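Kindly draft a polypeptide, keeping tokens residue-aligned:

***
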Amino acid sequence: MTTTIDKSADSIGWFCMFAAWLITLAATLGAIYIGEILGQTPCQLCWYQRIAMFPLALILGIAFLRNDGDVGHYALPLALSGGGVALWHSLLYVGWLPTAVEPCRAGVSCTGAEMTFLGLPLPMLSLGAFSATVVLLLAGRRKSQ
């Protein structure tokens, strides 16, 4: 028998999975638009973030359609690893880390002021997308019976 609390938890889990999927889908489509439509070549760290983000959009979409409450087991590692690269990239971008590693060079998408959205540079947008995805996946976790 399903209680009201169980239905509420399922609704929250469903909403969190849907929201995480929308975020990763928007980030994926944005990256494709920047690369393919605007013709901006991503730097090395942007590529690593894409390697984590693109499959997340697919995995979360399938999990949402299948109502797979265990999606966090296989989506969280991708979101955390992509978020780690995005954090590193953001700290390099703002100059808080030494620039021994310089993935962003002149002419590459994340270095120019023109490659911002709502005033935020791409590495920080990526960090926000990965962070929101991790929070939503953790918030939407369902207890195993």
Summary: The two ends are 13 Å apart (CA to CA). The chain has a mean pLDDT of 84.
